[in-house]
Amino acid sequence: MALDFVFQVAILLMSVVVHEVAHGVMADKLGDPTARYQGRLTLNPIPHIDLFGSIIVPLASYFTAGFIFGWAKPVPYNPHNLRPGKFSELLVALAGPLANFAIAIIFGILIRVGVGEGYSQAFITITSSIVYLNVLLGIFNLMPIPPLDGSKIIYALFPSVSERMRSMFERSGFTLVILFVLFFSSFISPLVALVFRLITGLRG
After folding, report:
1. Given a cut of 80, is residue 9 above it in pLDDT?
2. Structural domain that includes position 69
3. Among the four residues 50, 92, 161, 193, which has the most C-beta atoms within 10 Å?
4. Inter-residue contact 83 to 31 (CB < 8 Å)
5. pTM of structure
6. What is the pLDDT of residues 165-191, one digit of tens each?
7. DSSP letter at 82?
């Protein structure tokens, strides 16, 4: 159990760090160097660790629900520094989930090759965990709940949403995310399992 937990924590940290760095890299390419100036464009997990999301939540989810879940400290960016254009903030928001899906696809290909080549069950188990967790992170972050990436996509697509409404939702965003995880996350489980099967050819 201890070894399984260590592997899952390592997979989680890798995945959420890549997610956040992808946001920062996209913002940097679109004209906002905030993340680069703050030293957040690094795959070193230490600058990205969030006490609650990277330590407390993974421990609680693993020992109460049997799976591991969490998040990293959000990479800062200033939307006012982005190049003018209605899709700049949209691209920054999409970068994180797309990075998770890219990881899932890469390791999914390894699984399909590994199954055919007769790779060890340990290899298939670890790579399956990487795919599943990244699919989960990608889909979860696309939920239109502040401060998740899905809400930023909505703001970018519908800029008529007032700044007042946006700030109001984001102030209560953490509570909304916790409520979603506690009461509604089971609704995305079938979708996660479906995407996992499509990528790997295995049952989730």
Report:
1. yes
2. 2-200
3. 92
4. yes
5. 0.89
6. 666 666 666 677 777 776 767 788 899
7. S
